Each structure stands twice: as C-alpha cells, then as structure tokens.
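Recap from last week: sequence in, structure out.
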Amino acid sequence: MTVSTLDIRPLRGCGALIEGLDPNRASDREVDAVREAVFHRGVVFFRETALTPEQQIAFARRLAPIVVNRYFPKTERHPEIAKVEKAEAQTSNIGGGWHTDHSYDAAPAMGSVLLAVETPPTGGDTLFADMYAAYDALSDGLKATLETLQAHHASAHVFGTEGVYGKTDRPELAGHADTPEAIHPMVIRHPGSGRRALYVNPAFTTGIVGWSREESFALLGWLYQHAVKPQFVHRFSWRPGSMAIWDNRCTWHNAMNDYQGHRRLMHRITLDGVALG
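Predicted structure tokens:
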C-alpha cells in the first residue's frame, strides 16, 4: 500500500513496516493511512524517527485521543507519556509475558504509541501476535462456540495491593487501589476494520463467564498456545528512534527480558478506545 511517499509493507506473522513518513510533517491523508494500517495489520513499525516528547504527543493525538496510564510512572514534564524503563540493576521488566493492554477496562485502550529512547546492545525485542489470524485459523465449530461466550478480565492480581509486581523488584507498579474489572466477548468485531478477532489474553483474562475455573482454564490454555504459533507472531528489534503503534483489540505483545545489566527506556502513549461488542 502506498499513499504519496508512504510505503506500508506487511511483515511475516504480524504487522507492517512503514517507510517514507515524517511524523512531524505528515498530511491528514498519511495519518489516516497509518491509522487504517494499525486497524488492519494490528501493529505498524517505524525504523527511524527523531521525535521529542512534544512531537510524539502531537502525532499520537492525530491518531486518537490520549488517555493517561493509571499505573506506569510518568515522564517528568509530560504526564501523557509513561516511562517503560528497566535500570541496569533491575531484574524484572515491564510488560513481560503475553498480554494486551487495558483489557480490564470497560472501554479498553485502542492502542499504544511506543518510542525507543535507550536500548541495550542486544536483546529487549518485543513479540507481537495477530489475533485476527489466530481467530481465522480456528475451526468453524470452535468459532461458533466462542461467539456465544464472554470472559472476565481483571487488574488487581497484577497491579493491586497483592499484585504480582509487588513480589518483584518493581513494587512501584503494584499496590494500587484502583483496579478495574470488565467483561468482554471472547470474539469481538473490531470497530475500525470490521474483522473478527480473538479477545482474551494470558495476563488479564481470569475466566469464562458461567464456566468453572477448571473449565475456563482448559479452553483458555488451549487458545493461549494456539494464539502464539510462529505463523501469527512477529519479533521486532528496537534501536533508539524506533517506534511501534499497535492496536490492543487485535494483537498481543510480549516484551523480552533478556538484557540483564543494561538499561532500556521507552516512552509510551496510550490511545483511548471504546466499549467492545
């Protein structure tokens, strides 16, 4: 797909690479094309940008309204930007393990705009999985079953007073009293693309409505293994200035924690979403 000088190239597994875009000078037509690519491909990547925090915020606002993350530390001057940071001495990272952001909210976040500021010499890649493709690959019988089901999503076990981050060297991410829960269909029709996508994830989905814990985890466990088959996954390697924009409604992501002893700093902006049906 090409819009003016904008080149959008699909990647194997998940996502697309965009070249020929200067976010500071992008036309409305180019911004619309980026948004549509995010909706249809799940995630788009930019290899080289030189955005200041103010420029990242301005570009993100052209894609969708910004919502301030309730859990992550903010940059000193810009509350819209969350710092996804791991210091040299820390062993736990932020976002490790497969998940989709904000599925515990009644209106989950549309997406995220993540800019690499400082990256380790090696490691620190992020995996992205395509939930359109994961759904499409299911049998007709399982699709029909999933269409009738809803799942419960929660945040307390991760970010609450007894949250898992509190048991690591990242206690600042736990201990929160504001820990929303939500119920969403297990299969959604994406509001931007109209396509169906699998909408559960290992981090925040806690069970299937009306099913026992054992029944829920039998089906969810199978879906989790299915959704990260190699044919649905793309691994992105960062360097300073790299940027990714992903749609939380149709992708999962997993930040690799394989760069012990090195600092990694990313600036993340969350884009507001709508209730799913």
